[in-house]
Design brief:
- There is one protein chain.
- This protein is an alpha+beta fold.
- Among the domains are: 5-88, Phosphorylase Kinase, domain 1 (2-Layer Sandwich); 93-269, Transferase(Phosphotransferase), domain 1; 322-457, TolB, N-terminal domain (Rossmann fold, 3-Layer(aba) Sandwich), CATH 3.40.50.10070.
- Helices cover 56% and strands 12% of the residues.
- The strands form 5 sheets. Strands 1-2-3-4-6-5 form a 6-stranded antiparallel sheet, covered by helices on one side. Strands 14, 15, 16, 17, 18 and 19 form a 6-stranded mixed sheet that branches.
- The longest helix has 32 residues, at 258-289.
- The radius of gyration is 32 Å and the shape is elongated.
- The model is unreliable at 157-168, 276-280 and 282-317 (pLDDT under 50).
């Protein structure tokens, strides 16, 4: 074919050939550039399955615009019907050719592995699994840039598979165990193959060996690779650990995604460069001893000038250590899109919260300032931040329009601003770009690991992500209707992407909150536990899932030690996750560690000062600690923060019961009734308060109301229990108390653990109470 012209490509030379085709060097006569043309094999270009794979390669690679992936210009057909792909031509060699000369140095191997992982990360984010990563498909250009080749076996999300189940596709030596077994594969098969390639780069040998295909497959499925040795020195343990995690037989035990291994490779390269620098410094010692006094004087002068310049620059440089991200304005005026105007900023908040040196105001606090973007003084003084991000959003058809502006609150000037006009399916890229721009504009010093945290994704499906955002929008309303709609949307997200860990965590949180006000929480607790454990099986670093599991252990299992471990794990994973501090503080105070509980709840409030729930719970742990006056002041602050937040009025009434000021308690319970209508908890507490204040008729009226409200419904035994306890019906109170314990009602757990002498003063010496306390695990 050399010398022929195909379409507008003049073939110059043959580069090579393989099972998927022949590759030629050619000149693009139209654009005057050198390209590589890949043709289907001569003897098989009519093969429909091979043509399908060939077209798949063109589709997959052309959809990926990335520096570490070979650029595809077009796919066309020659006059004889033979398909060809026109792609970029690069000077250099394949990694296969490079390895023939022997093992690579650690820095060089790590650099190639890192660049390959970056390219694969782009493919995986787009929903493409390569399935044939090997040295022959990794090209190293003459300037050291990696290009991933040959997406002929790539699998795209939503594609109909080209092979039957049980058929292995790829190159045996680099296949993952699941690929070798002919099972369905995902992005983790590429992580395995990259691990094999990395091992081969470092040693010049394959980690799994065999004289034939069956022996090779046996080795892949059953044997472990030998420890890596390189000359007289061992490869660093960090490198070996990173590599062998890529080669775990069980996909769930491998790195969850390419971004998780990038930070380790990057840090390892930085460490290697530092070691090389130290070696060079030792070599320079003798040369420095020969320096003249003149050179020393000159060096001192130069250093002095540099130091003065650095000090001047540092004095002039703006520093930003905190940010508030406000809800975006919904320019579409479509109320159905209101969730986007809140959840896109919330996603930015979550991304930036992962950075250790930046304080990000939580959504529950900052979203209270929605509509007050122009009041920069209030933002600066109330939130104590140095910068604020504002924006607006609009959706027209499939197009998404976002405007964002980052403001310096020190001098009310713009730090950064931009406008984005893309398809809605590009929302991931928009969020990542805004997050990256913000971190750069705030002049944050980020490590390689920090940068990867900023762009970590939990799903690659935009529809699943949209459902999750809508679920989170409804969850944050903290109402029965909100929890119900949130449950629906989280389940929808999971149906779209069954491996969406965040959606499972959101579902678990939903069930935790729903269980609190149920008489028989067993069914929702069971679903919550399944959701939390599923989330952690996908991503064990999810703080939300650990916290939800901790709440289940505390509120339903009565496993205080297990709950504490889960809460501590959540806080360790995300030190800015206020809810974990909140729930852990309740547990500490519940177990009589009041000083720790108040301290931790105060920390939760510092992290999220605008959260009505955290402010309310600080009031209740102060009351459990016996500081009723501080509890009343804190609950009044909560009411001032949100006058429509009825749980604060309810707990204020409970605190007045602690103080035996029953008339005040009654007034607050009536206020709850005004805001929310009749509710079991309120009626039971009113009945108790009326009875203790001597208003027996009113108490009996409330008990009758409770019975009427509970007819045919799942009534809470704890409310009947305190009603009868208040009226002095001890036997009846014990009947309902026993049922409440059997049902694992959270309210009765609190009563027995923290409020025993408040509600059951006349029952404390009764052996039946001691037996119940023993059953619950609260022996006094």
């Amino acid at each position: 074919m050399i010398g022929q012209t195909i379409s507008h490509y003049k073939i110059v030379d043959k580069i090579g050939a393989g099972g998927m085709g022949e590759v030629y060097k050619a000149e693009d006569t139209r654009l005057g550039r050198t390209v590589a043309l890949k043709f289907l094999p001569r003897d098989r270009f009519q093969d429909p399955q091979l043509k399908a794979r060939f077209l798949q390669e063109a589709r997959a690679a052309s959809s990926l615009d990335h520096g570490n992936i070979c650029t595809i210009h077009e796919c066309d057909e020659a006059e004889n019907g033979r398909l060809f792909i026109a792609m970029a031509y690069y000077d250099g060699e394949t990694l296969k050719d490079k390895i023939r000369h022997g093992p690579l140095s650690l820095p060089e191997a790590a650099d190639i592995a890192l660049q390959t992982a970056v390219g694969l990360q782009k493919a995986h984010h787009t929903g493409i699994v390569h399935r044939d990563i090997k040295p022959a498909n990794i090209f190293i250009t003459s300037d050291g840039q990696v290009k991933i080749l040959d997406f002929g076996l790539a699998k795209q999300r939503g594609d109909i598979t080209l092979t039957r189940n049980g058929t292995t596709m790829g190159t045996i030596a680099y296949m993952s165990p699941e690929q070798a077994r002919g099972e369905q594969v995902d992005y983790r098969t590429d992580i395995w193959s990259l691990g094999v390639v990395f091992y081969e780069m470092l040693t010049g040998k394959l980690p799994f060996k065999g004289d034939n295909e069956q022996a090779m497959i046996y080795s892949i499925l059953n044997e472990n690779p030998s420890p890596i040795k390189k000359g007289a020195a061992d490869i660093p343990a960090e490198v070996e650990n990173c590599l062998f995690k890529m080669l775990k037989k069980n996909p769930k035990e491998r790195w969850a995604q390419c971004s998780d291994i990038l930070a380790g490779l990057q840090e390892m390269m930085n460490s290697t460069q530092k070691d090389e620098g130290k070696t060079r410094q030792k070599d320079d010692v003798h040369k420095k001893k020969k320096s003249t006094f003149l050179l020393l004087g000159l060096a001192f002068a130069v250093i002095s000038i540099i130091l003065i310049t650095i000090i001047f620059i540092l004095n002039q440089r703006e520093t930003f250590d905190s940010i508030a991200i406000l809800p975006f304005q919904n320019s579409s005026q479509d109320p159905n899109l209101e969730f986007l105007s809140r959840e896109i900023p919330a996603s930015l908040i979550n991304n930036l919260t992962r950075l250790p040196d930046l304080r990000v105001v939580p959504r529950t606090t900052v979203f209270r300032y929605a509509g007050h973007e122009s009041d920069l003084y209030a933002l600066r003084e109330d939130l104590k931040v140095t910068s604020v991000l504002t924006g607006e959003i609009n959706v027209i058809g499939e197009n998404l329009f976002i405007r964002a502006e980052l403001i310096n609150l020190k001098n009310d000037s713009q730090i950064w601003g931009d406008r984005f006009e893309k398809k809605f399916i590009d929302l991931f890229e928009i969020e990542e770009e805004i997050t990256t721009e913000i971190s750069g504009a705030l002049k944050l010093h980020l490590t390689g690991e920090d940068k990867l945290k900023l762009v970590k994704r939990y799903t690659e499906d935009i529809e699943a992500y949209r459902a999750y955002m809508e679920g989170r929008f409804w969850w944050n309303k903290r109402s029965p209707e909100g929890f119900s709609k949130a449950e629906q949307m989280f389940n929808r997200a999971i149906q779209i992407d069954p491996n969406y860990a965040l959606a499972y965590a959101g579902l678990a949180e939903c069930y935790c909150m729903l269980s609190i006000n149920l008489a028989k929480p067993e069914s929702v607790i069971r679903r919550g536990r399944i959701a939390a454990e599923r989330a952690l099986s996908i991503d064990e670093t999810l703080a939300q899932a650990h916290a939800a599991l901790g709440w289940i252990k505390f509120a339903y299992d009565w496993d205080w030690l297990g709950a504490e471990r889960s809460f501590k794990q959540a806080i360790q994973l995300n030190p800015q996750y206020a809810t974990a501090y909140n729930w852990y503080a309740v547990l500490l105070s519940f177990t009589d560690r009041h000083e720790e509980g108040v301290r931790l709840m105060t920390k939760a409030k510092e992290l999220d000062p605008g959260s009505a729930i955290i402010n309310r719970d600080l009031g209740i742990v102060l009351a459990w600690a016996g500081d009723y006056e501080k509890a009343v002041k804190q609950l009044q602050l909560t009411i001032n923060l949100d006058p429509d937040f009825s749980p604060a009025y309810f707990l204020m009434g409970v605190v007045y019961i602690y103080k035996k000021e029953y008339d005040s308690a009654i007034e607050y319970f009536k206020k709850v009734r005004e805001v929310t209508g009749d509710f079991h908890n309120t009626i039971g507490s009113l009945c108790f308060s009326y009875a203790r204040s001597g208003q027996t008729e009113a108490a009996l009226s409330e008990l009758k109301r409770l019975k009427t409200l509970s007819e045919g419904k799942n009534s809470k035994a704890s409310d009947f229990c305190i009603s009868h306890a208040g009226l002095g019906n001890i036997d009846k109170a014990f009947e309902w108390l026993d049922l409440a314990c059997k049902n694992h009602e959270f309210a009765v757990l609190v009563m027995l653990g923290c409020e025993l002498e408040i509600w059951f003063e006349e029952m404390t010496d009764d052996p039946r109470l001691k037996e119940l306390l023993k059953r619950v695990g609260l022996e006094k």
